[in-house]
Amino acid sequence: MEQLIEGFAAKKLGRELAAGMDHFRRVYKLTKLLGLKYDRQVLHAACFLHDLGEGEPHQEAAAKTAEKFLKKIKYPPEKLPLVREAILEHVSLGKPKSNEAILLHDADLLDFLGATGVTRLSIGAWDWMGKDSLAGILEVFKRFRKLASENLILPKSKQLAGGKISFMDQAIRQLEKEID
Q1: What is the 3-state secondary structure (H, E, C) of 58-112?
Q2: How far apart are CA 88 and CA 113, in angstroms?
Q3: What pLDDT, on a 0 to 100 scale, did the predictor assign at position 137?
Q4: How far apart, in whole angstroms, are the C-alpha atoms of residue 93 and residue 151?
Q5: In whole angstroms, how far apart are CA 135 and each of 108, 111, 153?
Q6: pLDDT single digits (tens) 112-162
Q7: With 70 as the cut, is the pLDDT of residue 14 above it?
Q8: What is the residue extent of each domain of the chain?
Q9: DSSP 8-state code for residue 129
Q10: How confident is the model at residue 53, as a pLDDT?
Q11: Contact, 64 vs 104, CB < 8 A?
């Protein structure tokens, strides 16, 4: 079933630089470092399907896409609500309750920090948000740095964020100097 899910994700977003398969793999790997018990099937599905929605808000569209696909491949129906919750609550201001949702939420936020975050947000600022200047990208860096660092839930997530936040702060200060 994991191969079907990853194949579907790759088909939908495989070449997407800021939120494709590389992002899904990093997030899935990060979730395993955060110290909560989890249902592997639920966590895997949520990690590889959480950004597959087109439209706004993206988490609602992704939850619908995931549910439709998972039903099609005969995913265990009793696990669908947990996958749905994780996808709906993965956003920075989400209020996840289940372990899988908390893990996805924090891992996704961690992937917006550090060198990976700077890279993803540089692409996403233009691609997702229509920013067309370095000042616009700087604004996105600042907003996501604040959202990500203030909304992490788990102590282990906050610990892992430390170096990433320092890097991001340095990148923000340097960009401010260079565009002044």
Answers
A1: HHHHHHHHHHHHHHHCCCCHHHHHHHHHHHHCCCCCCCCCCHHHHHHHHHHHHCC
A2: 21
A3: 92
A4: 7
A5: 24, 22, 30
A6: 999 999 999 999 888 777 788 999 999 999 999 999 889 999 999 999 999
A7: no
A8: 2-96, 114-179
A9: T
A10: 78
A11: no
